[in-house]
Specification:
Layout: H1 3-30, E1 32-36, H2 41-54, E2 58-64, H3 65-71, E3 79-85, H4 87-94, E4 108-114, E5 120-125, H5 127-134, H6 136-153
Antiparallel strand pairs: 1-5, 2-3, 3-4, 4-5
Helix pairs in contact: 4-6, 5-6
Length: 159
C-alpha cells in the first residue's frame, strides 16, 4: 500500500474513533434537560400539579420515589416523578403501526428532586433531540410534546 493510502485510512479510523468517543461522552448529557427550580420542592410540585391540567394535559401517575425507597430501607432525598400525557398528541404515535414502538417512551416524564445543595431541580427527557433521530412524523409529534411539557414547567424553571 502506498503511504498516502495508509495515511488516508489512518485518518478515517482516527475520525471514527474520535466521533464515537464524543458520542459516548456527550450523549448522556444531551439526552436529558435539567433545570434548577425557582422554588423549594413542595412549591415546585404544587405549581407543576396545578399547571398540568391548566395546559390541558393529564397526570395519570405520580411516583414518590423517596417513599418507595424508604419502604425498602433506603434513605434518599425527595424525588417525585410525574407521568404526564396529552391524548391528542399521544394518539398520533399510538394510532400508527409504524410509530407505536415509540410508546416505550410514553407518557412524558418529569422528575423533581432535591440535591445536597438544598436546591430543587426538574429533569426531563430531551424530546426535541430524540425527535430529530426518529423521523419526520415522530419529529413533529415529539416537538409538540416537548413544547407542551415545557409550557407546564416555564413558571418554575429558574432562568
Amino acid at each position: 500500500m502506498k503511504k498516502t493510502s495508509v495515511m488516508f485510512l489512518a485518518g478515517i479510523i482516527t475520525g471514527i474513533l474520535i466521533s464515537l468517543g464524543l458520542v459516548f461522552l456527550l450523549a448522556p448529557k444531551l439526552m436529558f434537560s435539567v433545570s434548577e427550580s425557582k422554588y423549594d420542592f413542595a412549591t415546585t410540585k404544587a405549581l407543576i400539579e396545578k399547571a398540568t391540567p391548566e395546559n390541558k394535559w393529564s397526570m395519570p401517575h405520580q411516583y414518590d420515589l423517596q417513599a418507595t425507597m424508604k419502604k425498602h430501607g433506603f434513605d434518599v432525598k425527595a424525588v417525585t416523578v410525574y407521568s404526564i400525557c396529552k391524548p391528542d398528541i399521544a394518539v398520533k404515535i399510538l394510532g400508527a403501526d409504524d410509530n407505536r414502538h415509540i410508546s416505550a417512551m410514553m407518557p412524558c416524564r418529569i422528575a423533581i428532586y432535591e440535591k445536597a445543595d438544598g436546591k430543587t431541580y426538574i429533569a426531563r427527557m430531551n424530546a426535541g433531540l430524540l425527535a430529530k433521530l426518529l423521523g419526520n412524523e415522530v419529529n413533529a409529534v415529539m416537538g409538540d410534546a416537548e413544547t407542551g411539557s415545557e409550557k407546564i414547567l416555564e413558571q418554575v424553571i429558574k432562568k
